[in-house]
Amino acid sequence: MSRFDVAIAGCGPAGLTFALRAAREGARVAVIGRPAAGARIEGASARVAALLQDLGLDMALLGPRLARAADWPGLTSTGNGEHLIDRQGLDAALLDLARASGVTFEAAQVRRLVPSRGVVELDGGGECAAALLVEARGRRAPVGPARLRGPATVALAGFVGRGGGPAGSFVAARAEGWLWRARRVAGDDWVQIAVDAADLRARGAGALWRALAGDLAMPATLRRTGCELRLSRPELEPGSLVLGDAAVAMDPLSGHGLFWALGSALAGVPMARAMIDGHGDLARRFHRERVVETFYRQARIGRDFHALAAPGPDAPAFWRGRAAWPDAEPAKPDGALAGGGSALGTSGRWMRRVIVQNGDLAERTVLATTEAPGGVAFVAGLELEGIAARLSGRVLPGLPEFAARVAPAASPRQVQAAHDWLARQGFAANPFPGTISDAIQEVTS
């Protein structure tokens, strides 16, 4: 194969979305991989639908947004809905879009990525050379140092025939694990159960299927996959990116898998630009901060959801272990950030982070709050550090004074949006914190 600007290992949503965006920016892109075998159904949120529409996907592929019900302690319904997507159809449509955008596709098995040489080695001895390599093979990708994973969990899934009742999805907690049933407008129902890996080895798939799925016959073709949350690649090697499940593999209970795949691919474009332009340090920092933060946020949200099904010490073992992992830290810390940052005031913390600004990576001062623990640099196009220079040590004034003294050059719509956001963070009652530079000056003086 010819030398490319970018070579991507893997042809799922993360790799193909990244390929699309990179090719549309003028890069010469190759995708190497074999589409996953076997039909399966996945749920997609409204956010996923919006991202796919923005890529140019035919929205008929998603089908209607259907209700999602729940049988879960403490919940009567999830209160939302989802599109039930045929993953084979989605992957094929994304591949067609990528090819139409000029992406070269090679249906081959990837042996390994060698960033030091700038090549993707293929089974059988071939190579694909590129300036930047991208790992997007999902859970099959090699893991890196400092990897973390939740309690080992296995998903068993397949088609079970057409059931009665309205189309939609249903999630339920059972003693030995949880079940998700997806009924599309047409076609067989898809059922997935999630069980502890050790329990599966001890009891077998048949016994656990009967325990969780009741009278539903076990599918003739049963798909088995590991499905616990994993932090697989917290660090990047020079000359390579890691996207989607290859970086952080989502627990399907979160319903966050497709959104993470697409979101990490879109975030990968400015990372790739930074690496090609010689700013690999920014890309590596951005990756580390983003994936570690995502992993712990998803782990703690999942812990709290599992805890609803584990109300006490007599709860089944599946739920007890997952209700205590990974730690006791809150899922949404009150203005605090894992990993540090100076505490400046009672309503937020300032820290230096790498962000995407105007399509490129840049290091900026960001404010972390309860609503945005990862930090925010701009609100409605206004720089928060500039607001801090005018508001430091004071509570948020009323809208007219805010417009006149804090954001005099902003449009009325910007002023209203920024004022509303600051009020939601609690700054109408608490003084706005000074910046990191203010704190350094206080310490040195």
List keywords for this structure.
alpha+beta, FAD/NAD(P)-binding domain, eight-stranded mixed sheet, disordered C terminus
Structure notes:
The chain has 12 helices and 23 strands. It is α+β, with helices and mostly antiparallel strands and 445 residues long. The chain folds into 3 domains: 190 residues, 3-Layer(bba) Sandwich (FAD/NAD(P)-binding domain), CATH 3.50.50; 78 residues; 103 residues, no CATH class. An 8-stranded mixed β-sheet has the order 3-5-4-12-13-14-11-15. Strands 1, 2, 6, 7, 8, 9 and 17 form a 7-stranded mixed β-sheet that branches. Helix 1 crosses helix 6, helix 4 packs across helix 5 and helix 6 packs antiparallel against helix 7. The longest helix is centred in the middle third of the chain and has 29 residues. It is globular, with a radius of gyration of 24 Å.
Largest sheet: 8 strands, mixed
Strand order of the largest sheet: 3-5-4-12-13-14-11-15
Low-pLDDT ranges: 334-346, 439-445
Reported CATH architecture of the largest domain = 3-Layer(bba) Sandwich
Q: Please provide the count of β strands.
A: 23
Residue share in helix? 25-40%
Number of helices: 12
Q: Classify the secondary structure makeup into a structural class.
A: alpha+beta
Overall mean pLDDT stands at 90
**The CATH homology group name of the largest domain:** FAD/NAD(P)-binding domain
Q: Roughly what fraction of the amino acids lie in strands?
A: 25-35%
CATH topology of the largest domain: FAD/NAD(P)-binding domain
Q: CATH top level of the largest domain?
A: Alpha Beta
What is the CA–CA distance across the termini? 61 Å
What form results from the Cα inertia axes?
Answer: globular
Number of domains: 3
